[in-house]
Write a structure and sequence with these properties.
It is built from 25 helices and 21 strands. By secondary structure, the chain is an alpha/beta fold. The protein has 4 domains: about 160 residues, no CATH class; about 250 residues, Rossmann fold; about 80 residues, no CATH class; about 150 residues, Rossmann fold. The strands form 4 sheets. A 7-stranded parallel sheet has the order 17-18-16-19-20-15-21, with helices on both faces. Strands 1, 2, 3, 4, 5 and 6 form a 6-stranded mixed sheet that branches. Helix 22 links the parallel strand 13 and strand 14. Helix 14 runs antiparallel to helix 15 and helix 22 runs antiparallel to helix 25. Adenosine-5'-triphosphate binds next to helix 4 and helix 6. One of its GO terms (molecular function) is hydrolase activity. This is DNA helicase-2/ATP-dependent DNA helicase PcrA. Keywords: ATP-binding, Coiled coil, Helicase, Hydrolase, Nucleotide-binding.
């Protein structure tokens, strides 16, 4: 065994040296071509191509590839080793097999989809399905041109029938640096299927915590850009994420995959930009505090709460009917007379407006009708008896066209919206019956907000939709592909609205219902989203394997889901075992001293990221103050920061979504902080699943019923010996 490892290592070292020499040679050649700085367009294009080549060669030089697959195509073709890397490198000799194959190339899919066994494997090439036998799947770790590790995860001629997880487990066991990383070397078959799914489909992905949703979405963008380079461009792709800090946290992955310029935004920023609004929305801390911190007097969650109603398709339909009613009444109530003796009847204008220009949005319809009137005037002018008369008519007509145009009502999204909620003195143009679907509590709270000129996040889909109905969208507002992360917190209205801005329903929508802690505005079932698309426009995938945490943490968190949420969306762990979860009672010692002791013990283990999760922001602040005053280098995450600082942190559990830490201390995992309520169970689930290697739950006297009440296979009680 050791011998064969030795020879594999030597073989790969030799191959690596040869590859580096070749890449260096190619790079040198490109560097020796003088950079073109002139104005000739063709030369500029060629120079851009050379520059991109220089950059990709330079990138591949440090770590040319990470995997090798030996494949023999059916039909007696020769077995050959394929080396797979983040960037493809061709041989300079035409017709020779590539030196390195880009991980996104069709043949590279074998590296990911092959799950072992003796059967032939196949991949979809442009010329059709190619079948053959895989002989070897090898993971290769190269750092700064040095070969560090060679691990065979499948060897047909060895004694392993299935692909082993050894390399994956080694990778997952590493401590976290500050940001999310790429996973090109260990993408799993079920993830690869999503990454390579066809472009014009609204993919909906339910994935358990830690199943790689965010990571997979980023890899999918890189794949789409490679596979459909003629049809999509990076600037026309966008990722929506819950907040700026999260966007910052994931911001290293795409550049690492050699992809730049993809837009990253929150829904709020995107909407405000379309609306040209620059008013700050009120801090949603009140909303968060209302829903998350009101433990004594827990609000009731129904479809009539503002977030749910304003995110519903019935609200979207109401808006459409309201704007349509306005449209019908917007043609001025008179005939048009450009000068005495000439009249264009209102009926004709109405016909143009209602029939010929009906498909256009209101602003464009008005524009078209006015242009049509102008053309009619020009025809009429030809009937003038002489030039002087014609001049006089022309002058009069021009004034009257202007004044007629002024009679069309001018609509603004916000005015219409305010009218719908009767927040303006101007009477609403719609019948009481039409508006009666707005629940009373929504009407009252929104009316009072709008009277104070306060807009909330939940009002934005409606405003953007009104804007769209009035003005349409411009071509630069259209997207080639949209990724929505944490999509369980999006509403059906938001998705239906975004669908108007994306070509071919090209969506990747990812989320986890078990982490639906914003259920007062998000969806409760994926059906709410899939029903927005025709069956052939959408596809559903479920990711059930969780990669982030150790087996013990995953099983512990599954227990919370089973008992507290009664969910069957349980995670399947990768076989990576660690320490059991620790349940530690405060006992006679103060809560602060207990937390400090836990922090000390975990910091001593030299984890790069340790985090304390509190139930409320106030508690996070107080704890942060206490620890900072005691000299700890730990920062507070309070939702206001745009940058993710990494390191050791303290934050309320609801802000921890999407993030991960080597070790997590959950503070106050007791009943008066986390009640026996599904929502609290989800919050704790989110908190627990942030931990990669170690999870400690500190608590007062009574723990909620969904936590294990005594020691078991995955959890132990008390401090470590
Ligand atoms: N195939 C893989 N190989 C190695 N690491 C992986 C793989 N898939 C996921 N991971 C790791 O698992 C962790 C979780 O990934 P990610 O944050 O993308 O999951 P998620 O499903 O979005 O999680 P959550 O919903 O809990 O926020 C990350 O550290 C990621 O690098």
């Amino acid at each position: 065994m050791a011998e064969s490892f030795q020879s594999a290592y030597q073989e790969e070292e030799k191959r690596l040296n040869a590859a580096i020499a070749e890449i260096n040679r190619q790079l040198e050649r490109f560097r020796n071509i003088p950079v073109y700085t002139g104005h000739d367009f063709t030369e500029q294009v060629l120079e851009a191509a050379r520059e991109s080549k220089r950059q990709s060669l330079a990138k591949s030089l440090a770590e040319p590839y990470f995997g090798r697959l030996d494949f023999e195509e059916a039909g007696g073709k020769q077995r050959r080793p394929l080396y797979i890397g983040k960037v493809g490198v061709d041989q300079e000799e035409v017709g020779e097999a590539p030196l390195v194959i880009d991980w996104r190339a069709p043949i590279a899919s074998l590296f990911y989809s092959f799950t072992g066994g003796q059967d032939p494997a196949s991949y979809e090439a442009p010329e059709g399905m190619i079948e053959g036998l895989v002989y070897l799947k090898r993971n290769i770790v190269i750092r700064k041109q040095i070969l560090e590790r060679v691990v065979d995860t499948f060897n047909r001629e060895g004694d392993q029938p299935a692909v082993s997880d050894e390399f994956l487990v080694y990778r997952l066991g590493e401590n976290k640096d500050n940001r999310l990383r790429d996973i090109v070397s260990t993408i799993q078959a079920e993830q690869d299927q999503i990454i390579r799914a066809a472009r014009n489909t609204a993919l909906i992905i339910q994935g358990v915590a830690g199943s790689g949703k965010t990571t997979v979405a980023l890899h999918r963008l890189a794949y789409l850009l490679y596979q459909y380079k003629e049809q999509v461009s990076a600037e026309k792709m966008i990722i929506f994420a819950p907040n700026h800090m999260f966007l910052d946290y994931i911001s290293d992955v795409l550049p690492e995959l050699g992809v730049g310029d993809i837009q990253q935004s929150t829904f709020v920023d995107w909407a405000m930009n379309i609306l040209h609004l620059d008013v700050p929305l009120p801090d949603n801390k009140d909303t968060l505090a209302y829903w998350f911190e009101n433990i004594e007097d827990r609000p009731k969650l129904t479809d009539d709460v503002p977030g749910r109603f304003k995110g519903s398709i019935s609200f979207m339909k109401l808006i459409r009917s309201c704007v349509e009613t306005l449209e019908e009444a917007s043609v001025p109530d008179t005939d048009f007379s450009p000068w005495e003796g000439a009249t264009l009847p209102r009926d004709t204008i109405l016909r143009w407006f209602n029939e010929e220009y009906k498909p256009y949005p209101l602003a464009k319809r008005k524009e078209r009708v006015m242009a049509r009137i102008h053309r009619w005037v020009e025809m009429e002018l030809k009937k003038a008896p002489n030039a002087a008369k014609q001049k006089e008519w022309k002058k009069r007509a021009s004034q009257r066209e202007k004044s007629y145009a002024g009679k069309w009502p001018h609509y603004e999204p916000l005015t219409i919206y305010k009218q719908m909620f009767k927040a303006l003195k101007l009477p609403a143009s719609w019948s009481e019956e039409m508006l009666s679907i707005i629940p009373k509590q929504v009407l009252q709270s929104t009316q009072s907000d709008l009277k104070n000129n306060t807009l909330r996040e939940e009002d934005l889909p409606a405003l953007v939709y009104i804007h769209y109905l009035l003005n349409d969208r411009t071509s630069d507002q259209m997207f080639d592909h949209v990724v929505i992360d944490e999509a369980q917190d999006f509403s059906p209205f938001q998705i239906a609205l975004l669908d108007l801005f994306v070509r071919g329903h090209s969506f990747t929508i990812l989320g986890d219902l078990s982490q639906g802690i914003h259920a007062y505005r998000g969806i409760h079932d994926w059906q709410e989203m899939s029903s927005l698309f025709k069956p052939d426009q959408t596809a559903y995938y479920a990711l059930t394997r969780s990669y982030r945490s150790t087996m013990e943490i995953i099983e512990f968190a599954n227990g919370i889901l089973e008992r507290g949420v009664r969910s069957d969306l349980l995670a399947v762990p990768v076989f990576r075992s660690g320490d059991p979860v620790r349940l530690i009672g405060y006992g006679q010692v103060s809560r602060e001293d207990n937390l400090r002791r836990a922090l000390d013990q975990l910091l001593a283990k030299e984890y790069r990221t340790v985090s304390i999760l509190t139930r409320t922001l106030k508690e996070a602040r107080e704890m942060h103050h206490f620890l900072s005053a005691s000299g700890y280098d730990i920062h507070l995450i309070d939702g206001s920061k745009k940058q993710y600082e990494g390191g050791h942190s303290i934050l309320p559990v609801y802000l921890s979504k999407g993030l991960e830490f080597d070790a997590v201390i959950v503070a106050d995992a007791n009943k008066n902080h986390y009640d026996d309520h599904e929502w609290d169970a989800k919050l704790l689930y989110v908190g627990c699943t942030r931990a990669l290697h170690e999870l400690w739950m500190l608590h007062g006297d009574e723990v909620p019923s969904y936590l294990p009440q005594e020691e078991g296979e995955f959890a132990v009680t008390g401090w470590p010996e």
